[in-house]
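Weekly structure sync, notes
Attendees: PL, DS, HV (note-taker this week)

Item 1: Allophanate hydrolase subunit 1
DS walked through the input record. Source organism listed as Paradevosia tibetensis. Sequence as pasted into the shared doc:
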Amino acid sequence: MFMFKWSHEGPAMSEPLMLPTIVPLGDRALLVRFGTNLGERANRAAVAFARRLDDAAPEGIEEIDPNLVSVLLRYDPDRTDPARLAGELRLMLSLAEEEPETPGRTHAIAVHFGGEDGPDLDTAAEALGMSPSQFVAAHNAAPLRVLTTGFAPGFVYCGFHPKTLNLPRRTDVRGRVPAGTVLFAAGQTAITATPIPTGWHVIGRTDFINFVPDQSPPTILAEGDLIAFSEAGR
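Item 1 (cont.): predicted structure, written out as tokens:
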């Protein structure tokens, strides 16, 4: 099984974009991979390609699922075959030019930082040489882009923070944090939408929940959307 490299030093911002590769996954799916490391360019390329597929998907594709550095395509083997589909995808990739990603929607999300809602905020700030208030100000200084959703229903990855806010994940795992928990690690901020265990730093809580099971689609945020974080009550 393929695993991309997750650096504790944060995402690779300036690494060159590799040539996309197409990997078969069983008899009903293909993975279009844009990188082996989590990086800005690879993520933007994956998001942009998923959007192009949404606009003009080859025959037989049933599901398009962008991830951090790849796009998973599930297809109906009765309507296409993997060789034909891979050829169509290669043609789309060869005709595509790397260009600035069109920003998605902007969402304002208020966060209750620190205290019982964010028990790791003080230690995270100290590890970065900041006071808690300086950390919150730096965290909220610029909008973050939605990199992908996944891992658990509605779980959202947002990035990227500058290098001054790079901090490895915790060495131990919390057994369970509630929905709406705001997490911080590896140059990113994440938001939970269901109760999950985590090794990320818990820095706050939000009333925003990115998962409504009876809606279609069940998630509110989409890859490429912008998140403007603010401190609740200010």
